[in-house]
Amino acid sequence: MMTPELALLSHLIERGLAHPVYYVLRGEEWLACGQPEKARLDFLAARERAAELLAQAEWGYILQAYVDRAEAGLRECR
């Protein structure tokens, strides 16, 4: 089932606004909808994108938080 939140986040990602936070939030929403495999893919994408940005950032606290949330989500998918 596609919730309004999933639709909005998917729209943002598809439009090229693939910021890690959108993947984390969509992954959390997929989990809430009982779709752990879709959630896992989004958490993996969030972790990868956040790690890429973190490697370039002088201040990476927010990006590290996205990595941490993605890791927590991946643990829930198992």
List keywords for this structure.
78 residues, mainly alpha, Methane Monooxygenase Hydroxylase, Chain G, domain 1, 4 helices, 0% strand, globular
How many angstroms separate the termini?
A: 21 Å
CATH architecture: Up-down Bundle
What is the overall number of helices? 4
Number of folding domains? Answer: 1
Mean pLDDT: 91
The CATH C-level name is Mainly Alpha
What does this structure look like?
With 78 residues, this protein is an all-alpha fold. The protein has one domain: Methane Monooxygenase Hydroxylase, Chain G, domain 1. 79% of the residues lie in helices and 0% in strands. It is built from four helices and no strands. The chain is globular, with a radius of gyration of 12 Å. The two termini are 21 Å apart. The mean pLDDT is 91.
Offer a quick outline of the entry:
79% of the residues lie in helices and 0% in strands.
